[in-house]
Amino acid sequence: MPKQANFASLDGLHTFPRLLFHHAKTRPNAPAMREKYLGIWQTWTWVDVAERVRALACGLAALGFKRGDNLAVIGDNRPHLYMMMTAAQCLGGVPVPLYQDAVANEMLFALQDAGIRFAIVEDQEQVDKMLEIKDQTGALEHLIYDDPRGMRHYNQPFLHDIHELMEMGRIHDRNHPDFLNAEIELGHFDDISVMLYTSGTTGKPKGVCQTHAAFIAAAQGGVQVDNLGADGDILSYLPMAWVGDHLFSYAQALVAGFTINCPESGETVMTDLREIGPTCYFAPPRVFESLLTSVMIRMEDAGQIKQKVFHHFMAVAKRCGADILDGKAVGFGDRFQYWLGNILIYAPLRNVLGMSRIRVAYTAGAAIGPELFRFYRSMGINLKQFYGQTETCAYVCIQPDGQIKFDSVGQPAPGVEIRIADNGEVLVKGPMLLKEYYKRPDATAESINADGYFMTGDAGFLDEDGHLKIIDRAKDVGKLSNGAMFAPNYIENKLKFFQFIKEVVCFGHQRDMVCAFVNIDVGAVGNWAERRGISYSGYADLAGKPEVLELIRECVEQINADLVNDSMVADSQIHRFLVLHKELDPDDDELTRTRKVRRNFVAEKYKVLIDALYSGKTSQFIETEVKFEDGRRGKVSADLKIAEAKTFPIVKKAA
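Now predict its structure.
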């Protein structure tokens, strides 16, 4: 497979440590990282970051960290955690970021699989998780923490405050001044730079080993297409273990030299987003769905005049906003109305969302509904879909400016080749491919075919303009009993555009009709219920209200009316559905940590509900075990009502 990237433009700066020290030398006083702490933004320049990385790397070396060692990184996005990733790379080690919201036992597999001897964690919460499973890891020797709050009475000798580690490193650096430079020089572009674990939707997660060459090539391609420069800002708030964050908040920042901004906490992200006003923004579709829901909730609380003005100008935006953004010809009347709408609605809305300065926004990780995509672009936000997998550095397709299609993920990115297999699976080749799955040569061999193409597992096709359209996961695409194609994710994404719907799971493979589970958005539906004087005591009570069932029925029937116009999926209209009594939750193993549905697990767990949907029942009792945040287990039960949805006759187009 091709691993050699084109590094001509980097002048030998083909590893991340070399890129960091190059920025520190050529633009030492430019801001490299910011972090909001106690309400105040703290700034580190490139020379500050380089000094701390040097100290951390030498500190790790003093503790015995050596070339080939793996370093676990666990916590929210923090400058010191990003610095530790580079510090490990300086020594020829490999950072292994893990999802910070995972419980201790979920982390155990990766810690054992990667043979972790060293771990850097954010705070006391993460330290406690590591202490809980340390004896089971078999290899963990040193645990470093960033935030000292609550750590006063922890006196285990293997625990190290990160500032103490830096002081140890500075002493080591003074005593061995040539050590680190020599280690960095040993670094090669084909060395593994990071190991990212897959979400494990169908089995145990696999460690994806990516090289410096792969991620730098992916970062260069994105920087080139969207003209990202050193004057930019990005808000880094998505899990560091997710490939998207590693590409945008780490690789592209080190290639382009823009500033990484870390929010104070998960609860302050929206406030911090408005304060920073990033020029580049990245979020999975669920975040854009959540933002849209919050806007719609606020509009429901507005007066009638404001609502009428809002809906009028949003209709204008839907009609011509995306064309104006793409520089296409638009009539004077629409252009004038859009200009007025920008003053009254779009600009204030972008400001509220913290998107006033955005030059480009990306979404990836799952398909985004065309309606949601259109909404943001029509408001003047240059939102693009970005397609890729952990195994491809999240880099396969990019949408160039002026060539945006709402139902495609774009054209092949620079250096990427795409081929569609006979069974419809998308195959990709390029410098961004994984080097291997860690300790899994069998899985590595299975993922790359004889021609060197990585098999993505997605089903799709290239249209007449060379744009890739993803239908669904290849393993999830099935057929109804009449032979019509059934693509559940396609239908689910359409339903999730509605502000009242948070999650959907559709069923229909080898069956005569499509049925669905629906999770309501408790914020949006709760607001809707309160405005109508409907009282409720919690999620389960609200989800079981007859009025809520009718509300969701209206959404389902709107989608059915839309599906009937698409011949490819017209047979997949939803006939029956129910509103689940609990939210699908990663802690209950129903979703991955990246909030992808574990379909097989959900189908097995809720088999009694699926049987009820297809047997014609009007209700079904169920009792479900749930796991609380503090580790306790409990049960929730409900008598779920099953609703029929109106379907529409399929109009056969004339040949």
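The chain has a mean pLDDT of 91.
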